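Run log // design_07
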């Protein structure tokens, strides 16, 4: 399901320009779970795709004006209906973690794959999101020597809170 470049098949691709090469000889051994919704707690729109492709209109919502300048991306997004969208090949470095560290290693973007769940810190994720997530995690673990599956809040404590208290870690393996 994950090809040699790190594209999931089948999967809708919306390629982000906000990617670059991982450092040479990087072993991808971490998956970072996030949540995102744009506008916050509004689901189903095109805001996330617009943000990750630098097309967010700052005039469309006050929150968009705050974040439209950001150059960010993630490898994957899982929408509320379970749809999987890929923005970057796993072989490339997506810009999802920001300032981060884990067990003494800095810059987690270098060696991680980012998965965004459409959601927020204040309500549960959907059943189909967990189903898609587990299918994706299983495929990624077959392709890469994943050792750590962590929340954004764990690698950027005090700065990030996602995936938040409603993410059920016992639902994934
Ligand atoms: Zn995050």
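design_07 sequence
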């Amino acid at each position: 399901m994950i090809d040699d470049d790190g594209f999931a098949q089948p999967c809708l691709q919306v390629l982000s320009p906000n990617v670059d090469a991982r450092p040479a000889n990087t072993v991808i051994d971490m998956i970072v779970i996030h949540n995102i919704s744009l506008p916050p707690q509004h689901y189903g729109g095109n805001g996330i795709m617009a943000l990750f492709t630098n097309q967010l209109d700052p005039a469309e919502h006050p929150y968009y004006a705050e974040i439209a300048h950001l150059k960010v991306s993630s490898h994957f997004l899982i929408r509320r209906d379970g749809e999987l969208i890929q923005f970057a090949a796993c072989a490339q470095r997506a810009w999802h973690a920001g300032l981060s560290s884990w067990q003494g290693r800095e810059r987690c973007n270098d060696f991680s794959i980012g998965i965004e769940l459409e959601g927020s810190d204040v309500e549960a994720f959907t059943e189909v999101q967990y189903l898609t997530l587990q299918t994706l995690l299983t495929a990624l673990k077959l392709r890469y020597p994943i050792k750590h599956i962590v929340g954004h809040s764990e690698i950027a404590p005090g700065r990030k809170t996602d995936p938040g208290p409603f993410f059920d870690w016992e639902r994934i393996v």
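The radius of gyration is 15 Å.
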